[in-house]
Amino acid sequence: MEVMDVVKKFHKKIDYDAHKSCDVKYPTANDCIECCSKPYFEQVNIDYTCAQKRKIYVARYAPTYISEVHSAFRVTPRDYAEELSKKSRIKVASIGGGPGTDIAGFKKWILRNIDEDNDIDKIKFLRVDIHEDWDDVSPELIKLYDSPGIEYKYKKVVRDITQKPINTQSFKSFDVIMMSYILSEINSNDIEKVAKHISEVISDKTLLVINDRPQDVVIRKIDQFISAVGGKNPKIVEPTERDHCGETYPDEIFGKVGATIFRKSIRYNVLIEK
Do 154 and 119 form a contact (C-beta atoms < 8 A)? Predict the structure, then answer.
């Protein structure tokens, strides 16, 4: 199954008229699509406890968000990419990646950019999220881009990373840590707390990939975070005009859901060594 198959599946589940009888829609939104987009542009946290919004999220954003994360991994230092390919087991953390687009982006990189002659037997993912609500969406996305011969294991913990450490028995440290559209949602005063909790699970070498909004206030948070966890000289993928995600929508879905097809995020790839 490809990502556009998932988009089509969720498109069929969306009730595009649900806003007509909705009592909790965003105050300035005229329909469900605007209920998803307006809070973003007005820099207000989007509440995805609504099942309708989660379906729209997949149809509207998933292909581009997956592509953004994939592009961030493509600038991974070659030596570390080769080092990962020689590991029999890889441990990956998804911080705040509820819907699973970051996991899909990482798996796409493994499938399409890592030599098939690798030694990887198993990749274990830990998803750390403050919400439980994405469980009706994430299974469809995290299972994309399986590589032949690799076993995938997924575990999720519900946790507020600003308040509690990751602290799981099965994951003491990680080879890769991903943070997609999460630092922008964290209060500046909590960045150091998050950095402390992440630092506790960094191994001798850990690849940190951050994908987020290219706004000055967010970039300052990212810089603060990377410095606090000991990151140096990150590779940065800047957003460019009309940077297409590489997926083609059917016309009827593209117009209906108002699909986002251009990569607009800023992406950081930094290898942290203790």
Answer: no
